[in-house]
Design brief:
The protein is an alpha/beta fold. The protein contains ten helices and 14 strands. It folds into two domains: 194 residues, Beta Barrel (Elongation Factor Tu (Ef-tu), domain 3), CATH 2.40.30; 138 residues, 3-Layer(aba) Sandwich (Rossmann fold). Keywords: FAD, Flavoprotein, Mitochondrion, NAD, Oxidoreductase.
């Protein structure tokens, strides 16, 4: 089991189902719902019980994430679908999920599988993410302080019984270091889903993507949704930048998708190429965008996700309130407008 899971970490996450299929009943799980009963959840999505900045800060949440949380509360649309008892996530409550297995993807990136009721789906839609939190001590009043971070699962939203997170471990990363110390059987508190881009089949004729590092995760969610739907004719072009060839996450998975689906193309570029490297060299450039992505138009959409330096270079970062902000960088130079670009 463990060896098989580690091999799959290098290949196709869509195949991860085989690593635990038939074995969920022996795994511990926690979902937060009374399974077997139908319960509808509707209304506005609320990220926290606490609504004031004062209360949020009392939880130990850093200012930049406080701003993001408040923005999401303000701008998230009302839910028109209802959750049932077979959705493991809850939009208003922290739910504990138990770690089942881990695997190394690269020298600084790990895959984490969390399990829950094998008859349930996580409750994600394309494209959405989850919030995770971990305790980091207590404040002066003895209340627990938390670090909170959003992550996009790389497992299929339709998968039952488990979800996978791919996380880069940073030396000073509070949450990633917390994940790195987890052992099978430990739990992580999760809330969601948190709406990002609401993807609909054939919503655009051509979608271009620019990703850096773990910014590939929301892109993969959309790519797989398109490729597994025979009625979705959307063309997808991905520019994926990394430090070196060894840092390219899920390259085998992306290559398999590109080889088996003519409507998906991927181009890799790295800062430090190896001797036998045949892809692009350096940051994503204006020339790469012109040659590799659909040109400006009303029937295209460019998605961008990556580290702050890449975002600034390609599209400009989001605004301080985590709204989309002004379009800048090489995408603006290439003639795209804010309506044509979405920043994750």
């Amino acid at each position: 089991m463990s060896l098989f899971f580690r091999r799959l970490a290098k290949a196709a996450p869509a195949a991860f189902a085989y690593a635990v299929r038939g074995s969920h009943k022996s795994c511990s799980y926690s979902s937060g719902f009374p399974y077997g009963a139908i319960a509808a959840i509707s209304g506005g999505l609320s990220l926290f019980y606490y609504t004031s900045s004062r209360n949020l800060k009392a939880l130990g949440i850093e200012d930049r994430w406080l701003i993001w949380i408040q923005s999401m509360k303000k701008h998230t649309r009302k839910w028109t679908e209802s959750f049932c008892a077979f959705s493991a996530l809850h939009p208003d409550q922290w739910v504990e999920f138990k770690l089942y297995e881990t695997a190394n993807v690269t020298h600084n990136t790990k895959l984490f599988r969390f399990t829950f009721n094998p008859d349930a789906k996580l409750g994600l839609y394309v494209a959405s993410c989850i919030l995770t939190r971990a305790p980091i001590g207590q404040d002066d009043e003895g209340k627990t302080k938390y670090v909170i971070r959003p992550y996009t699962p790389i497992s299929d939203p339709d998968t039952k019984g488990y979800f996978d997170l791919m996380i880069k471990i940073y030396p000073e990363g509070k949450m990633s270091q917390h994940f790195a110390k987890l052992k099978p059987g430990d739990v992580v508190e999760v809330k969601g889903p948190i709406e990002k881009l609401r993807y609909m089949p054939n919503m655009k004729k051509h979608i271009g993507m620019i990703a850096g590092g773990t910014g590939i995760t929301p892109m993969l969610q959309i790519i797989e949704a398109i490729m597994k739907n025979p009625d979705d004719n959307t063309q997808v072009s991905l520019l994926y930048g990394n430090v070196s060839p060894d840092d390219i996450l899920l390259k085998k998975k992306l290559d398999i998708l590109a080889e088996s689906h003519p409507n998906f193309k991927v181009y890799y570029t790295v800062d430090n190429p190896s001797k036998d490297w045949k892809g692009g060299i350096g940051y994503v450039s204006k020339d790469m965008v012109i040659k590799g992505l659909p040109g400006p138009g009303t029937d295209i959409l460019i998605l961008v996700c990556g580290p702050p330096g890449m975002m600034k270079h390609v599209s400009g970062d989001k605004a301080e309130d985590r709204s989309q902000g002004e379009l800048r960088g090489i995408l603006k130079e290439c003639g795209y407008t804010e309506e044509m670009v979405y920043k994750f």
